[in-house]
Write a structure and sequence with these properties.
By secondary structure, the chain is mostly helical. The chain has three helices and no strands.
């Protein structure tokens, strides 16, 4: 299997993984899988040559389209995680305020 086809396959795996809800699974595993697939994709991109057949050019177009969808999904996941972190921090501050209610008296 050539590098372009492998890149398409890994990109499809990443897109499929990003379509799963982060709320339904262990977040650490979910994020670790994203990083693993991104690293694998990057190593395949680094191994690409400059000469492509017509078939590889068509696969490249599919990869570019899929990459746009992947970018969109990654941004959605990032926004979700930022919101979760902010909510967590707000709850932590509220708990501390409640616990230390009479601290200044």
């Amino acid at each position: 299997m050539n590098t372009v086809q492998q890149l398409l396959d890994v990109s499809q795996q990443l897109y499929t993984h990003l379509n799963h809800s982060i709320e339904e699974v262990d977040r650490d595993e979910y994020i670790e899988t994203i990083f693993q697939l991104l690293d694998e994709r990057q190593s395949l991109i680094d191994n690409l040559s400059g000469e492509y057949s017509e078939e590889e050019k068509e696969l490249g177009k599919q990869i570019v389209q899929l990459n746009q969808k992947i970018d969109q999904r990654l941004q959605e996941k990032l926004r979700f995680l930022k919101q979760e972190l902010e909510t967590f921090q707000q709850n932590k501050r509220r708990r501390e305020q409640y616990t230390n209610l009479y601290k200044h008296i």
